[in-house]
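Lab notebook, design round three. We kept the backbone fixed and only want residue identities now. Task for the bench partner: fill in a sequence for the structure below.
Input structure tokens:
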């Protein structure tokens, strides 16, 4: 028995084999489940079309079908679940397009989104970023799609189509910027004053949620990273590394509105990192100032002409008003349509 306990290599190899097998079995079961649900949806829709079933009668049909299937096969066949199976078939022409990518619970969340471009964006990001269902729900509830569309002030149909077809493309630093960032996970009451040091500690405590909000490819390096120039010590609030862009990301936290001097300070930090920290494979470092508010005109003049990549974004401690964000996106798109 002692020999077996001491044989860690053998035990680890068996563990890895079992975990790998469990993952493959779970993936196979999920694929079969979604395939079956898609085909149930197909049968329901075909029945409706052949019998010219009206919407109100269709609801009653699903209710009766739910009773029969639940009695025969148990849970999983509520009327709402059957309706999602129907929507799965209606929204995805080919069964293969949904197999092996996400779980059925993911698709139930996605099918509640009526806008096809928006739904496609969240689907692509859930796949690309490996979001759990909880993470997907949070990104939808915090209006990630609308925030990205409004971040650079250049929302147009090309942006909408690109997001829906590819998700977030991390080709350049501006692709990862959001406005605003949402820190509802910190539980800070709206408009309550908070010190920058306390905000930093709270974000570190909730680092997993903060990384999710920052986006794909971020790795946490540390806080209060020291920079020494002419025997004077300076400290960068938070430093991350984005493995997709292959760049250090320096974040300065401000519990006030954006001030020009904060931009100058961060620009100095970026120059130091480019000269002293970067290696030959790293891209130029990126700076983000997170503040409570910013004047767009002042920010444009303050950030203009800098050789470094510096961005200023607002952060809020509560869920944004989704309806208001949607109206903003629609207004920008309407303005764009009128021009072109």
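Proposed sequence:
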């Amino acid at each position: 028995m002692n020999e077996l306990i001491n044989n860690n290599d053998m035990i680890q190899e068996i563990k890895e084999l079992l975990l790998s097998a469990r993952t493959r079995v779970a993936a196979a079961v999920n694929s079969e489940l979604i395939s079956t649900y898609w085909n149930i949806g197909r049968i329901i829709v075909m029945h409706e079309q052949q019998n010219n079933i009206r919407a109100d009668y269709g609801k009653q049909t699903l209710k009766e079908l739910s009773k029969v299937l639940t009695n025969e096969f148990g849970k999983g066949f509520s009327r709402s679940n059957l309706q999602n199976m129907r929507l799965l078939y209606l929204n995805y022409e080919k069964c293969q397009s949904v197999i092996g990518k996400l779980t059925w619970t993911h698709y139930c969340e996605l099918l509640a989104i009526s806008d096809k471009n928006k739904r496609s964006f969240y689907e692509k990001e859930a796949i690309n970023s490996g979001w759990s269902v909880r993470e997907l729900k949070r990104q939808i509830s915090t209006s990630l799609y609308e925030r990205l569309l409004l971040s650079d002030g250049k929302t147009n149909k090309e942006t909408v189509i690109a997001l829906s077809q590819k998700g977030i493309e991390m080709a350049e630093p501006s692709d990862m910027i959001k406005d605003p960032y949402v820190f509802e996970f910190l539980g800070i009451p709206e408009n309550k004053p908070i010190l920058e040091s306390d905000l930093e500690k709270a974000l570190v405590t909730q680092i997993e949620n903060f990384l999710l909000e920052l986006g794909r490819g971020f790795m946490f390096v540390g806080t209060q990273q020291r920079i020494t120039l002419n025997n004077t010590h300076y400290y960068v609030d938070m430093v991350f590394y984005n493995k997709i862009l292959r760049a250090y990301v320096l974040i300065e936290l401000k519990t006030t509105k954006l001030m020009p001097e904060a931009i100058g300070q961060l620009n100095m930090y970026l120059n130091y990192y480019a000269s002293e920290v970067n290696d030959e494979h790293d891209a130029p470092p990126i700076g983000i100032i997170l503040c409570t508010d910013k004047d767009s005109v002042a920010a444009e003049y303050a950030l203009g002409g800098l050789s470094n990549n510096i961005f200023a974004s607002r952060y809020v401690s509560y869920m944004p008003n989704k309806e208001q964000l949607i109206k903003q996106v629609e207004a920008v798109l309407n303005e764009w349509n009128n021009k072109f």
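Keep this in mind before ordering anything: The mean pLDDT is 84.
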